[in-house]
Structure formats: C-alpha cells, structure tokens
Amino acid sequence: MITAGCDIGSLTSKAVVMKGNRLLGISIVRSRTRPAETAEKVLAEALAAAGIERSELSRCVGTGYGRENIPFVDEVHSEIVCHGKGARWLVPTANTVIDIGGQDCKAMRLDKDGNVVKFLANDKCAAGTGRFLEVMAKVLGVDVSELGRFSEHAKKPVVLASTCTVWAQADVIQYINSGETLDDIGAGINNAMAGRVATLANAVRIEREICMTGGVAKNTGVVRALEKLVGTRIVIPRKADPQLAGAIGAALLAQG
Ligand code: ADP
C-alpha cells in the first residue's frame, strides 16, 4: 500500500510518500499564503521524487497548521498525533519528543506504542520557536541554517537579557555594535532559545530517550545547549530529515 503524508506548516510544508515502512520520496517547500497551492506543489514534488503517479496513492493524510485547507486528503490528524507517530518511527527508542517548528514548540511523552500521553506546547509567543531564530538570523545577516555552527566556534557566548523576540533583537543589535563576534552572538541566540525550550521539556517530565524533531532539530547549537540544560542526551533522527516527522506520522496513519 502506497500512502502519502502532507504537513502544511507555518513556515515550511512537507510531504512524504511511503510504502509500508519505506520512505520512497520526500519534499520540503516554503509555505505560501495559499495552503491549497502549497499542498499541491509539495505533494507533486514528493511523488516525482518517488517516481510514483498520483493514481497509485491509496490514501493521503494531512496535518499541520494548514491541514483543513488541503483539498486532496482522505483525512486529517492533529500535529500532536502525527509528530508522535513520526518521531517513534524515526527513533524507535524515544519516549520524549521535543518538536520545534516555525511557530510553536511542543514537548511530548510517548507510551510504549507511540501514543502521546502527556503534551505541552508554547504557541503563544515567538520566543522558543523557529521564528525567533529566523528573526535573529536576519539581524545577523546570515541564513537560519548557519546559526547552529556559531556555537561550535564561540569563545564567550553573549547573554541575551530577555528571550522576548523584540527585546532580544535589540540586544543582538547592541552586541553587533559593540564588536562582539558573530560566533559569540550566534551562540548566545542558540543558548537563549534552548533555555526557553528546556522549561517546557522539563514540565512534561523527561523520560529517556529524548528525540528532537522539527526544523530546529537541524540547529546543532540549540540541540547541544538543550542537552546541557536538561542533562540528558538528545537523539537527532538519522533515518530521515527530522523536519519530516509530522508528514511521516501522517503517511503511517494513512496506512490504517
Ligand atoms: P513549521 O512546520 O512550523 O513550518 P518546521 O518544522 O519546518 O516548522 O521548522 C522551521 C524552522 O526550522 C525554521 O524557523 C528554522 O528555525 C529551522 N530550520 C529549518 N531548516 C533549518 C536548517 N537547515 N538548519 C537549521 N535550522 C533550520
């Protein structure tokens, strides 16, 4: 049975095509203002990558913030359910999942079957989300994908007085003006982000192993800082891009 999962997120949209346990094709695109168009594009790209015709798809499940606007899905599921399923597939030993996307951060605890038993989210404020990193990267004049490696070279990371995106932005500008290095400022941004996420992660009562998903899992600076704060190793999925967790969970749920 060939299925697809389509995760229409706030910043990026993801689609995967799966046959049983096998990932056949994937796509990640920037979300546009019209979710239906974005969904068509991202699914078409994943199908092309898999070499599969649309007519060969048995079922497709939608998730993510734009899930109600995907025209072609057979059913939709919440991001929580899909991320839990996807994370378990990506890292079968994971009992705690930290997912940081563009506009929210979720911490989940899973039971032995991969069902979510405890769940907390920050979706009220940009602090502690990918949006915070996007804004800070723009102030530094770098791509968000470059932020992580600043932490590797930092000698004395700066401390941001506030994790509020507006105040932190002002802090970063001040640090640039006072001649701090990009490495030290970037590391300070990653540390501030990790601090905000650690509070949420601790509140779900962490159980090993921790798996991190969502686009921010690709920022090694945030991951390493978070590991120090929660005192537990964090596993980053190797089986597939961690940003695909929701779409993978959706494709698995489409298998019934
Ligand atoms: P959503 O599903 O809400 O759109 P994602 O899970 O796609 O969110 O995550 C988007 C965030 O991931 C971005 O805001 C950015 O901070 C981060 N991100 C995306 N790609 C990378 C990358 N290559 N390296 C580091 N961070 C990344």
Can you characterise this structure?
The protein has 256 residues and is of the alpha/beta class. The chain folds into two domains: 107 residues, ATPase, nucleotide binding domain (Nucleotidyltransferase, domain 5, 2-Layer Sandwich); 144 residues, ATPase, nucleotide binding domain (Nucleotidyltransferase, domain 5), CATH 3.30.420.40. The protein is built from eight helices and ten strands. The strands form two sheets. Strands 3-2-1-4-5 form a five-stranded mixed β-sheet. Strand 6 and strand 7 form a beta hairpin. The model has no long low-confidence stretch (mean pLDDT 94). Adenosine-5'-diphosphate binds next to helix 3.
Shape: globular
CATH topology of the largest domain: Nucleotidyltransferase, domain 5
Strand order of the largest sheet: 3-2-1-4-5
Bound molecules: adenosine-5'-diphosphate
Give the DSSP E fraction (strand runs of 2 or more residues).
Answer: 15-25%
Brief description of this entry?
With 256 residues, this protein is of the alpha/beta class. The chain contains eight helices and ten strands.
